[in-house]
Amino acid sequence: MSGLIDRSFIEENFPTLSSMVYLNTASTGIPPRRTIEVMREQIESRTRPGRSLDDTIDFFRGLRQTLARLLGGREENYAPTASTSHGLNAAAHALEYEPGSNIVICDLEFPANYVPWQNVCRWYDVELRVVKSRNGRASAEDFAQVIDERTRVVAVSLVQFSSGYKIDIRELARAAHDVDAMLVADIIQAAGWADIDLPALKVDFAAAQAAKWLVGPIGAGFVYVSRQALEVVRPRYLGWWGVKDTKNFSYFEREPLEDARRFHVGSLSPVSQGGLLSSLETLLEIPNGTRERAAMKVADYLRERLSDIGVEYYDFGARNNSPIVSCRPDDVEDVAARLTKKNIHCSVRNGRLRVSPHFYNTAEDIDHLVEVLR
């Protein structure tokens, strides 16, 4: 669309996009061809002797280093997990909660980022405070009105899955840290398209998985733990990958690792984790800022076209918009069915059509969508 990304790169790595209009990355991204090849090789490798434990240790070191290149920080800030839910639960149970503590979330969250906090509040007798959204947004200022000196955790999605609202995470971090609360971020709807530097954003703990904007497989996730958070979080459960002297299998008193690897519990799927690394490497062939500009340019073009045809949509302004565009055509379920018949893929969320272009989409994709919406 924009000349920001060479179309030959897209055609080589995402060949199936030539046969459909795919505007549903907020549900699942399209994996690069090389990711599928890596995953196939991982499956086939199980039929013959191959990787040693040292090879596996080196692989996970490379994965953590690659996550740091994409999202900021250092390799010791990252650990692999199976999913976003896995990571958020690890964060929720890694803290001590004094009597009278509260946790602050908002009512826009996907269940992965509210079910763990509801559960923690039951386990530890903590108050759950829910910020009420308005017109698809719950701002940092809205959170600040609910946060107080008894707040232990502020949990939020950097980008909301349904409305596409992108919160001012730095401002929210300031409000949380002013009362010594921990800021936990679900970044699944941001990692991959957004130019993110988690240490600069002052996030304490973040979690995501690969299957959306990271264009990777289901079943591969990760956590980020800041240097400051590593001083206070204590995992409620440990596995052999999360303790010192990993290669020593004899019995002795084990101690957790000092970095984020303490959250690496058990043997994770080499198929999914290998696919994640391959997808990250593909993404990093495009500079972070270029990927963000490309995705946002297509989304902004969509907003222009929706305005042209009189379809209402959430517009949060340049600071808070994302590539997730939530609009409200008449008879949305009928519209969604007609789009599917024409091989145009979006989602319906909360009674609205959710359109989510990535860097691999074009203006022509948007034009095809708008023709159906007219």
Describe the structure.
There is one protein chain. The chain has 374 residues and is α/β, with parallel strands linked by helices. It has two domains: 7-25 and 287-373, Aspartate Aminotransferase, domain 1 (Alpha-Beta Complex), CATH 3.90.1150.10; 41-283, Type I PLP-dependent aspartate aminotransferase-like (Major domain) (Aspartate Aminotransferase, domain 2, 3-Layer(aba) Sandwich). Helices cover 37% and strands 14% of the residues. Helix 3 runs parallel beside helix 10 (270-283). The model has no long low-confidence stretch (mean pLDDT 96).
Brief overview, please?
With 374 residues, the protein is an alpha/beta fold.
What keywords describe this structure?
Aspartate Aminotransferase, domain 1; 13 strands; four-stranded antiparallel β-sheet; Aspartate Aminotransferase, domain 2; alpha/beta
The N- to C-terminal Cα distance equals: 22 Å
**Briefly, what CATH class of the largest domain?**
Alpha Beta
Note the run of SSEs as H and E.
Answer: HEHHEHEHEHEHEHEEHHHEEHEEEH
Gyration radius, rounded: 21 Å
Percent in strands: 5-15%
- The CATH superfamily of the largest domain appears as Type I PLP-dependent aspartate aminotransferase-like (Major domain)
Indicate how many domains the architecture comprises: 2
Q: How many helices does DSSP assign? A: 13
Largest sheet properties: 7 strands, mixed
Q: How would you describe the shape?
A: globular
Mean pLDDT: 96
**How many strands appear in the DSSP assignment?**
13
- Strand order within the widest sheet? 2-8-7-6-5-3-4
Q: Could you list the spans in which at least 5 consecutive residues all have pLDDT below 50?
A: none
CATH-derived topology of the largest domain = Aspartate Aminotransferase, domain 2
Level-2 CATH architecture of the largest domain: 3-Layer(aba) Sandwich
Helix content: 25-40%
